[in-house]
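User: Fold this, then the next.

Assistant: Folding the first:
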Amino acid sequence: MSIAEFLGFVHHKKTADGSAAAETETVRKIVAALDSMDVEHARYIAAFAFILCRVARANLTINASDVHVMERMLMERGGLPEQQAILVVEMAKTQSLLFGGTEDFVVTREFNRMATPEQKLALLDCLFAVAADPMISAAQDTEISQICHELQIEQDDLIAVRSKYREFRSVLKPPEPEA
């Protein structure tokens, strides 16, 4: 079974209008474009996406709005076209849900090795953007702090980026009044 089949992008039944064949061809084009990337850049993008999924998964699920924000981050920060960003996020999401607990530290350590300090701070900002949709939970805030530790990001840098997202932090919100 190919990764495209595993992710549900390849359908073996052909519709009357030939859309299954078109979907398969689209996926092949995207995969070919990803394959044509510089190996180091592809590793960087894969690790970046996986770490984004790590924060989204901190709430034990990755919802549609998390996916949308991650795709946008890969397009804006990773320079990927929309179709590639969608595929990369889906692949990272699948890997995160299947192997996240065992791969989190390994992937983050690899990202730490390949990323510049500026790229690490850009990732940190993206982590908060993913978590802030709609509210940064305590679990997500804790996960981001752990990632910062693994990436050797200074506490002052974490605080500076976190402060930009303070209105989204659930721990700073007053409790809802009881009815």
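Now the next one, as you asked:
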Amino acid sequence: MMAAGWERRRAEIDEVATPVREWLVRELAPQPGETILELAAGPGETGFAAAARLGDDGRLISADFSSEMTEVARRRGNELGLRNVEYRTVDAEHTELEDDSVDGVICRFGLMLMADPAAALAETRRVLRPDGRLVLATWRGPEQNPWVSIGARILVARGLVPPPEPGAPGMFTLAESERVESLLATAGFTDVLIESVPVRFVHRDVDEYVASAVDTGGAFSRAFAQASEEEQAAIMQELAESFAPFADDGAYVLPGLALVAIAR
């Protein structure tokens, strides 16, 4: 169901994530003939932007843990007419790729949701060639990402989802530069640059926000579906009140801030 929602919202998600995608592809600097691996690729748009630079002799491996999401990416790649892309359903902790077999790895908003990000990064370092590079994106903290933290806070307060466990996979597990740097160093990366990239989520009203969150947000979608009609109405009222400071020209403009990094 979540993959179907991401496919429906692909263009919307891609528009929001454009600044992040542009940073990742620019810093990765894909070259003709290289092999690039995208992990947790989702609909695949970031990897596809890299594939456009690889030429006929290069190759993108678009990979996701979900076979349904892999098919979403395959359909999008076919729609774009890409011929240098291979689609795989893989666990980022065990990619089954050979040692030193790829020139670059992309992971946009996937690492923080993995059960063992340290293992995934060690696996990434294993498959990268000695001069290979990794680019990744996670989210900064909840105060910098009200687009998701407001709804989560409301659901927790109502007992519809449990409070996040410290260190467990989640949106803000890798929000701090120090934590990301430590994980990268442990995995064997030595040359690391970390920056921040702002994004904006624009919704006409609360109905549109909830429809998007139900389509793309696993925990929100499940919790909202399980709530009674009265509770759903109350949640939407709380969202409207909390979003009021972000009202702008007849819409809600909710800020977000991504942590982005390149490592070698």
